[in-house]
C-alpha cells in the first residue's frame, strides 16, 4: 500500500499513492490473480483490491491486463474480466484448526505434499478441525513463504456433536463448546434446547451451517447437568471425544447367549497347560486379566516359561454385533475414575478374563529358556490353562522382597530372567522411557482428596519384559515365514527426526543437560543417559514428556518397519486382546497362518490398522483430558500457599510452570506480569524485562501461587509468588 507524499514537486504523483513501473505493476497483478485462482476481476475491481490510489498507475492497469492476456499469462473473458491461467494443485487432507484466524491442511500421504497448507478462516468453507477436505493449493506462496490454499469441499465431517455450556438470552441461545479447536459458538433455537437451562453442560448436534453464516445451528441432544459436578464433567469429556456411554443392548444380549461351559471337544483340540503352575499379576483393582504366566523346570535344567493370552477371538466371531462394536471402539479407555471397555463386561471381566481356579481358553507363546535368559526354543498355539493364583502387583513384589509367600521362588527366578532380557534389550539400543504417571485418590463423589505418582517396581518390569518377548516372537515368527510378504499387523515406531531431536537437545541444555546425539544406538544411549541423570530431579517429568513428543508416534500397520524405541526389528501387539482390537487382528491372522492359510490381501487390514491407530489417539487424548480436569479441580481445592515449580515452557504470551509437588502445569500470562514489560526472545526461549533485565527461561526454579482455575477450559492461572505488586487472593471459576 502506498504512502502519501508530502513533496509537492514530485511529478507524476498524486496524493494517496506512488507510481509503480510497468514491470512492478504486472507482477503485482499476476500475483493477485494467481492467489485468487478461479475468480474473475475487471480492471476497476483489481485497482480496488490492490489499493492503487495514484491516477498514473490506475491508468496503467487495463493496458497491462490486455498485454498479459495477449501473452497468455492471464485469461480474458468477452466481458473484459480477467483470471489466472496457472494450473493449481488439488489435494485432499485433514484440517488442523490452529486458531480462529487460520488452519493447516495436513495432506494425505499419496499427494506427496512437503508442508502443511495454510488456509485462512474465510477460505475454510465452514470446515472444522479434523474434517477431511478437498483443497485447491494456490500457485503462489503467501506472505509467510509457505503454501496457501482454499477449501473447495468438505468431504467428511470428523464430528457433528460438541459438548459445551449453554448461554441463554431472552431471544436465542448459544452453546459455547469446550473443545478448544472449535472456534465457533453454536446457535440454538429456543425450541431445540431440550430442556437445558442457562449454564448447564449439554451435547449439541450440528443441524445446519449455510455458507456465509458466521455460526452453525444446532440442537441439544443430551443435557449433562450442572457444570463443575464430577459426573457431568466426566460425561462432558466422554462426549467431547465421542466415547460411548453404554454398550448397545443387542450386543450385550449377544454376549449373554455365549455358553460359559467349555466343551471337551474344544479342550482336546488344544495343548493342555492346566497341570502347570500358572498365575496372573495385575493392578489391585483390575478385573480383566488378559495375560497369565506359567512356569516349570525341565528335566534338562532349562525353564519353560509360558505367556498365555485370553483367546478373545474364540468368543468374538467375525460378522457379529460383538465384532462390529469391538472394531468400532478398537480400545478400552481408562479415565481417572472409570474404564470404558472395548468388550462387554460378560466377556472382559467374565468369559475371557483369566480368573483363578477356572479353566480358561488361551493363545500362548511358550519359551524354553536357560539361566542366561537365552530363548532356545519357542512354541505358539492355542491352549487351555487353569490359573492357580491371582496376584496384585504389590503382593507379588512383596513376596520377592521378603523371599516368602505363594510362588516366591518362581517369581524370583522369573524376575531374574526378566532383568537379563531387559539388559540385553538396552544393550541393543532400546530407549528407557520411564514416564511419570499421576494417579488420584477420589472420594465417593469423585472429588480428588490427593494425588500420587505411580511407582514402577521390578514386578511391573518383569511382566513387561515377558509381554515384550511374546509380542516380538510372534512378529518375527510371521515375518520369517515368508520374509515379510505375508499380510500381518505390526506395531512400528520409526526412527526419530534428527531436527526434532536437535530441538529437544537444545531444550535439555536449558536444564543443564548435554545430549551427544548421533545415529542408531548412539541416540538411544544418549537418551538413556539423560533419563538416568534426571531421575528424582524436579525437571524429570518435563523432560520425559518432551522427549516422548520429540519421537515419532508408534502406529499399527501391515508394513514390517521395526520398532526404534524397543530396538526390535519386528514387533506386534499380541498380549492384550481384551482391551485392544489390533491384538484380536493378530490372533486371527496368526491362527490363519498356523492352519496353513495363504496371505490375504493387505488393503483392508491396513484400513483396520489406520482406524485402530486413530482410536488409540482418541483414547489417549481423552485420558489426558480427564487427568487434566482432576488436576485443575485438585488445585482449585488445594491449600492456598506458594508452590515451587519449574518453568516448562516460554511463549510470547506467557510462561508455563509445572508445580513440582503436584505435577500440575499452569500458566503465568505476560499481560499479568506488571512489574515490567517483558519481551520474548524466541531463539533462547526466554522472556527479558525491558527495564529490570530480569530473565525468565526454561528450567528456572520459581515460586508461584494459584490465581484462578477454570474447569471448563481445564486451565490453571498462576502468578509469581515474589511479585510484590500482586497480592490477589486465588479466584475459582
UniProtKB/TrEMBL annotation:
This is Ribonuclease R. GO terms for molecular function: exoribonuclease II activity; RNA binding. It is an enzyme of class 3 (hydrolase). Signal peptide: none annotated. It comes from the Bacteria. It catalyses: Exonucleolytic cleavage in the 3'- to 5'-direction to yield nucleoside 5'-phosphates. Belongs to the RNR ribonuclease family. RNase R subfamily. Its main location: cytoplasm. The lineage of its organism: Bacteria, Pseudomonadati, Bacteroidota, Cytophagia, Cytophagales. SUPFAM superfamilies: Nucleic acid-binding proteins. Residues 640-721 form the S1 motif domain.
Amino acid at each position: 500500500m502506498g504512502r502519501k507524499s508530502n513533496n509537492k514537486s514530485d511529478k507524476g504523483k498524486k496524493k494517496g499513492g506512488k507510481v509503480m513501473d510497468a514491470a512492478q505493476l504486472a507482477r503485482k497483478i499476476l500475483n493477485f490473480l494467481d492467489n485468487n485462482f478461479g475468480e474473475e476481476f475487471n480492471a476497476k475491481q483489481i485497482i480496488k483490491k490492490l489499493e492503487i490510489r495514484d491516477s498514473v498507475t490506475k491508468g496503467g492497469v487495463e493496458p497491462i491486463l490486455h498485454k498479459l492476456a495477449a501473452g497468455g499469462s492471464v485469461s480474458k473473458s468477452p466481458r473484459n474480466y480477467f483470471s489466472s491461467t496457472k494450473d493449481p494443485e488439488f489435494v485432499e487432507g485433514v484440517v488442523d484448526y490452529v486458531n480462529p484466524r487460520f488452519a493447516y491442511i495436513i495432506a494425505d500421504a499419496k499427494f506427496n505434499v512437503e508442508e502443511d497448507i495454510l488456509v485462512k478462516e474465510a477460505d475454510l468453507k465452514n470446515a472444522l478441525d479434523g474434517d477431511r477436505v478437498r483443497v485447491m493449493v494456490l500457485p503462489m506462496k503467501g506472505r509467510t513463504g509457505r503454501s496457501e490454499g482454499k477449501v473447495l469441499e468438505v468431504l467428511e465431517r470428523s464430528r457433528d456433536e460438541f459438548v459445551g455450556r449453554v448461554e441463554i438470552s431472552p431471544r436465542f441461545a448459544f452453546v459455547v463448546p469446550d473443545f478448544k479447536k472449535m472456534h465457533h459458538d453454536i446457535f440454538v433455537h429456543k425450541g431445540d434446547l431440550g430442556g437445558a437451562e442457562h449454564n448447564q453442560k449439554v451435547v449439541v448436534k450440528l443441524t445446519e451451517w449455510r455458507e456465509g453464516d458466521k455460526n452453525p445451528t444446532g440442537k441439544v441432544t443430551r443435557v449433562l447437568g450442572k457444570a463443575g459436578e464430577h459426573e457431568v464433567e466426566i460425561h462432558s469429556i466422554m462426549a467431547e471425544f465421542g466415547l460411548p456411554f453404554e454398550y448397545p443392548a443387542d450386543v450385550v444380549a449377544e454376549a449373554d447367549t455365549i455358553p460359559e461351559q467349555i466343551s471337551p471337544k474344544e479342550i482336546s483340540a488344544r495343548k493342555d497347560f492346566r497341570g502347570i503352575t500358572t498365575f496372573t499379576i495385575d493392578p489391585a483393582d483390575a478385573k480383566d486379566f488378559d495375560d497369565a504366566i506359567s512356569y516349570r523346570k525341565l528335566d534338562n535344567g532349562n525353564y519353560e516359561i509360558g505367556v498365555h493370552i485370553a483367546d478373545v477371538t474364540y468368543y468374538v466371531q467375525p460378522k457379529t454385533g460383538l465384532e462390529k462394536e469391538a472394531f468400532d471402539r478398537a480400545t478400552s479407555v481408562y479415565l481417572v475414575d472409570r474404564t470404558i471397555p472395548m468388550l462387554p463386561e460378560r466377556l472382559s471381566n467374565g468369559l475371557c478374563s483369566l480368573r483363578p481356579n477356572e479353566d480358561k481358553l488361551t493363545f500362548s507363546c511358550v519359551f524354553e529358556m536357560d539361566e542366561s535368559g537365552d530363548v532356545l526354543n519357542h512354541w505358539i498355539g492355542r491352549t487351555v490353562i487353569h490359573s492357580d493364583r491371582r496376584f496384585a502387583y504389590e503382593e507379588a513384589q512383596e513376596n520377592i522382597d521378603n523371599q516368602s509367600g505363594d510362588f516366591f521362588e518362581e517369581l524370583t527366578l522369573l524376575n531374574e530372567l526378566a532383568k537379563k532380557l531387559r539388559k540385553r534389550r538396552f544393550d541393543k539400543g532400546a530407549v528407557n522411557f520411564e514416564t511419570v504417571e499421576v494417579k488420584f485418590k477420589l472420594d465417593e463423589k469423585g472429588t480428588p482428596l490427593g494425588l500420587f505418582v505411580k511407582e514402577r517396581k521390578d514386578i511391573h518390569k518383569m511382566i513387561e519384559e515377558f509381554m515384550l518377548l511374546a509380542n516380538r516372537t510372534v512378529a518375527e515368527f510371521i515375518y520369517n515365514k515368508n520374509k515379510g510378504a505375508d499380510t500381518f499387523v505390526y506395531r512400528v515406531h520409526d526412527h526419530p527426526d534428527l531436527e526434532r531431536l536437535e530441538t529437544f537437545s537444545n531444550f535439555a541444555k536449558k536444564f543443564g543437560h548435554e545430549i551427544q546425539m548421533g545415529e542408531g544406538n548412539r541416540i538411544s544411549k544418549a537418551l538413556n543417559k539423560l533419563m538416568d541423570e534426571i531421575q528424582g530431579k524436579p525437571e524429570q517429568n518435563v523432560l520425559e514428556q518432551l522427549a516422548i513428543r520429540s519421537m515419532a508416534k508408534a502406529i499399527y500397520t501391515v508394513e514390517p518397519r521395526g520398532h526404534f524405541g524397543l530396538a526390535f526389528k519386528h514387533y506386534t501387539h499380541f498380549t492384550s486382546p481384551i482391551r485392544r482390537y489390533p491384538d484380536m487382528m493378530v490372533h486371527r491372522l496368526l491362527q490363519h497362518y498356523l492352519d496353513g492359510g495363504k496371505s490375504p490381501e493387505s488393503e483392508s487390514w491396513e484400513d483396520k490398522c489406520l482406524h485402530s491407530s486413530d482410536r488409540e489417539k482418541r483414547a489417549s487424548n481423552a485420558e489426558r483430558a480427564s487427568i487434566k480436569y482432576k488436576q485443575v479441580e485438585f488445585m482449585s481445592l488445594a491449600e492456598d500457599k506458594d508452590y515451587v515449580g519449574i518453568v516448562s515452557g516460554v511463549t510470547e504470551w506467557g510462561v508455563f510452570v509445572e508445580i513440582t509437588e503436584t505435577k500440575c502445569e499452569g500458566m503465568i500470562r505476560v499481560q499479568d506480569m506488571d512489574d515490567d514489560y517483558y519481551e520474548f526472545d524466541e531463539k533462547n526461549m526466554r522472556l527479558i524485562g525491558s527495564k529490570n533485565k530480569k530473565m525468565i527461561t526454561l528450567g528456572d526454579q520459581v515460586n508461584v501461587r494459584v490465581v484462578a482455575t477454570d474447569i471448563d477450559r481445564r486451565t490453571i492461572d498462576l502468578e509469581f509468588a515474589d511479585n510484590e505488586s500482586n497480592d490477589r487472593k486465588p479466584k475459582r471459576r
